[in-house]
Design brief:
The protein has 558 residues and is an all-alpha fold. The chain has 20 helices and no strands. It has helices at 2-20, 27-56, 60-94, 97-103, 109-143, 147-178, 184-202, 215-222, 235-244, 254-290, 297-310, 315-330, 332-350, 362-387, 399-403, 409-438, 444-470, 479-483, 486-515, 520-557. Helix 2 runs antiparallel to helix 3 (60-94), helix 3 packs antiparallel against helix 13 (332-350) and helix 11 packs across helix 12 (315-330). The protein starts with a helix and ends with a helix. The model is unreliable at 183-187, 209-213 and 292-297 (pLDDT under 50).
Length: 558
């Protein structure tokens, strides 16, 4: 155990050193992040406080709504933490070079495993918990709960919550890695079994304990689409009940919730240690050896059959595109984050047809349309800065290889821009079409949202790649290190400002049209003018940044 404490102390020192290096970073980056963190924190508390007060005005129904909101929130948070734990386990345990270094140390693998579990639990949960703090603080203020009692209770609830979700993600990552050398039929059978279990869980019916005519029965019938969140077989319902018991509004007695929460945390932790003792080291070795047996035909198949023969693209251009595709899918962190963010948006959009209330109101429909458009564009802005900005920096010391190719550097930049822009359009356009179809949007509004998302995709791709070429960091070892400088911060600021200027004026004009402040024909004229203005601005921004980025790279090469 002293060796384990030494490793934990080493990790703590690394964290402290990272905090001490903050003054060395770009001041623009530090102030920008600090401004947004404080703004998100205090605005989140204010909005949640006002929302809870608004719901409390409905007396008994308001308490039931707040209860159901927390049930759904804890369930979604649990799923996100479990998925995040899977991604972090793959990146920090199986794909980490640090793990290879630790294995040569005189430290048992069990202790290294426990250290990685603590690291995964911390890294996968801190951001989600920080996002949850404004909601928890606002609830405590509304219910007027004692600060000391409330803080201690929240800590005692969140620690078991993190243990259960992180243990589940860790176990699933170990299980999938252990099966990495077994035939794909077992993966298919495992996936089908998992889907069957989920279907059984969502269709479980529980006996109602309320008397005939009780308002709970009517409330549960109205919100039957979220009945899975309060299912007693759902572990997150136990955590929610314990949390709500702080204000005396839980359906389960506090002693039952307390025992269910802590017994589940102890069980998942014990099961994780037992599972690791059987499959931990073998799962790690299987994952390390599985990569060497990957077939090499995929790259040639992409070049010859898809890009060259089907799309009639030149072979040298196709080689650059195929290389970027291969590098993207070789990094599980990249495609998993893309899948998580856009997958959640797609599931949300697909379930819009379940909204039966106020959906026919023009005000709410217009509001939901532009909020959905903004969520897609802001997600795209974040991910484009995270993944497109480092494209030039990650070439690193191998830039001379591109210099030996028949391409000029600005042509390589254009190929990357077009390929990534088309790839992102294949994601964002179906999302907006799904959203509009679920909301029964047609006519001018449908075309308006499609044009805006196309302009946003083209402009964000150009700004991220162009600024990445203007501010490259060829000494960066990882993509996150390349983004952490002045250029990455500037790219995020430009992306967010671009989205605001692109969407907010159109949303305001459309809202004025719905509210009757201006005539319909006048609104159509203004929106058409704004589309032309936004299209011209996006075209100029893309051309200017790509041109300046290409010139900067050619000067650096010379």
């Amino acid at each position: 155990m002293p060796k384990l404490f030494s490793l934990i102390r080493y990790k703590a020192l690394c964290l402290m050193n990272s905090l001490r290096e903050l003054p060395a970073h770009s001041k623009l980056k530090v102030y920008f992040i600090l401004f947004f963190v404080l703004g998100f924190f205090f605005s989140g508390i204010f909005c949640a406080f006002r929302a809870f007060h608004f719901l409390m005005d409905f007396s008994f129904i308001g308490n039931l709504l707040i209860e159901r909101i927390f049930h759904v929130y804890f369930f979604v948070l649990f799923i996100m933490l479990a998925v995040s734990s899977i991604v972090m386990t793959v990146s920090s345990l199986f794909s980490s070079k640090e793990m290879e270094f630790h294995l040569v140390l005189p430290v048992p693998f069990d202790q290294l495993f426990f250290l990685k579990f603590i690291e995964v639990a911390f890294l996968s949960s801190w951001a989600f918990l920080f996002m949850s703090l404004p909601l928890f603080i606002a609830y405590g203020l509304v219910k007027d709960i004692s600060i000391t009692r409330y803080v201690c209770s929240i800590v005692l609830i969140l620690i078991p919550f993190i243990l259960v979700s992180s243990s589940l993600g860790f176990i699933l990552a170990l299980f999938l890695s252990f099966l990495s050398k077994i035939r794909g039929k077992i993966f298919i059978a495992t996936g089908m079994l998992f889907l069957v279990l989920i279907k059984i869980f969502f269709t479980l019916k529980t006996r109602n304990t309320y008397t005939h005519g009780d308002i709970h029965i009517l409330f549960d019938h109205l919100l039957k689409h979220t009945s899975w969140a309060v299912n007693p077989f759902n572990p997150t319902a136990w955590f929610t009940s314990l949390f709500l018991s702080l204000s005396g509004e839980s359906r389960l007695p506090i002693n039952i919730s307390f025992h269910l929460v802590f017994s589940s945390a102890f069980f998942m932790t014990a099961f994780l240690l037992f599972f690791h003792s059987l499959f931990g080291y073998r799962a790690w070795t299987r994952y390390q050896s599985a990569g060497s047996r990957r077939k090499s035909w995929s790259l040639f198949f992409i070049i010859d059959h898809i890009f060259v023969k089907l799309l009639k693209i030149k072979r040298d251009v196709a080689s650059i595109v195929a290389r970027d595709v291969q590098l993207f899918f070789r990094d599980p962190v990249q495609y998993s984050q893309f899948g998580i963010f856009f997958g959640i948006l797609f599931v949300y959009f697909y379930n819009l047809h379940n909204m039966r209330y106020q959906i026919d109101s023009l005000f709410w429909k217009n509001l939901i349309i532009f909020l959905n458009l903004g969520s897609v564009c802001l997600t795209l802005a974040t991910l484009s800065t995270r993944f497109l900005f480092p494209q030039i920096s990650m070439e690193g010391k191998g830039m001379w290889v591109l210099g030996m190719s028949p391409f000029r550097f600005r042509q390589v930049l254009h190929v990357k821009y077009i390929s990534f822009c088309l790839f992102l359009l294949c994601i964002t356009v179906p999302l907006i079409i799904t959203s509009n179809s679920m909301l029964n949007v047609s006519g001018f509004d449908f075309v308006l949202t499609l044009i805006l998302v196309v302009l946003a995709t083209a402009g964000l791709s150009a700004s991220s790649i162009g600024l990445g070429a203007l501010f490259p960091n060829f000494n960066a070892l990882t993509a996150s290190e390349a983004v952490s400088g002045f250029g990455g911060t500037l790219s995020l600021i430009v992306s967010i400002a671009y989205i605001v200027l692109l969407i907010v004026p159109c949303a305001f004009v459309k809202h004025a049209d719905v509210m009757g402040w201006i005539g319909h024909n006048t609104a159509l004229f203004i929106l058409t003018f704004l589309l032309i203005l936004n299209g011209s601005g996006s075209l100029f921004l893309s051309y200017f940044l790509l041109k300046k980025g290409g010139e900067a790279i050619e000067k650096n090469e010379c």
